[in-house]
Amino acid sequence: MITAGSLQPLFHSCPRRNLSSLLFPLLNRQARSQPSFKSSNPRFLVTFPHYYHSTTTTTTRSGIVTTTTTTAKMGLTVKATIASFGGKLFKLSHPSTSTGTDMAVNLYLPPQALKSQTKVPVLFYLSGLTCTPDNCSEKGFFQHGASQRGLAIVYPDTSPRGLNLPGEKDAWDFGEGAGFYVDATQEPWAKGYKMDTYITRELPSVLFGADSEFGKYLDADKVSITGHSMGGHGALTLYLKNPGMYKSVSAFAPIANPCECAWGKKAFAGYLGEENKEEWKKHDATELIKSEKWRGHKDARVLVDVGTGDNFYKQGQLLPENFEKAVKEAGVEGVTVRYQEDYDHSYYFMASFSDEHVDHAAKYLGLL
Hints:
This protein has about 375 residues and is an alpha/beta fold. It has two domains: about 10-75, no CATH class; about 75-365, Alpha/Beta hydrolase fold, catalytic domain (Rossmann fold), CATH 3.40.50.1820. Helix content is about 35%, strand content about 25%. The chain contains 13 helices and eleven strands. The chain has helices spanning about 10-15, 15-30, 110-115, 135-140, 140-150, 195-210, 230-240, 260-270, 275-280, 285-290, 310-315, 320-330, 345-365, and strands spanning about 50-60, 65-75, 75-85, 85-95, 100-110, 120-125, 150-155, 220-230, 250, 300-305, 335-340. The strands form two sheets. The chain has a nine-stranded mixed sheet with strand order 3-4-5-7-6-8-9-10-11, with helices on both faces. A hairpin with a 2-residue loop joins strand 3 and strand 4 (about 85-95). It starts with 7 loop residues before the first helix and ends with a helix.
């Protein structure tokens, strides 16, 4: 078993930014021996190593030295608890083995969960470029609908923070705050930019697992996903790549065809490699909807809203028309794309329609 105590020499001898190169091989070996979080949903059968903190006490009695080591598991840390629409918003953090950093995440529990202590369905919300877990939970108005329907909302962060990679903070649309919900394969980003794995595997394990204080409130078998802008891209692609993992998907102003827009080309070239265009397609909703697993699908459960006053839409960064065309050509049914007159890219837009997106998820989560 790897403990913080057993790794103590590494912390003293290695610069922080180089520690992950030593730590991850050890954690990966440990992961194979750790128990899995079990769910009847096979997509959530995951195994992740736990972090541990150990303290060592040395005592001397009659010339005999005795050393005792106490090891405690490190899980979610509650940073704040905020009342919201009859429920509670928890600001949390936890050490992540996917990213090699502490990750912030906000969790909203509706009053139905807190009062009856019964498990409620879950909606993951993925944020856009530059955002943290706080942006939407403060301005998106999702808790209003969630409290009415009895739905928990998970607000993850948009990238690792604190890796201190060269160039990580040079641009607002790449690097920190801009993980694009992919697992990077190019250095130096491959060291911790593993947001696909983090969102689909590790974070559910942390939240739903038996060791989580919130596991008793969250139904791991009833999960949907939504998002905004870069997060709308993430929600669509993670849903389309993992049939059965989520009951439905919705998106506000998603980057619907990143292979063909400036934001997407920059991110994919940096994270996945300039020449790896076939790999890019695996993270593009317009390409994924054309795949054999979705071709002719009769119940896609997709809702997309785009504002016609959105400057990014006008600049060709979102390209929802390309997604619509691909849906039609693939013969996919159950996809609704709505163009909301005059609305822009902001949280005013999202707050105006958040109840409808909550209801879209609630329908397929058995709440309506």
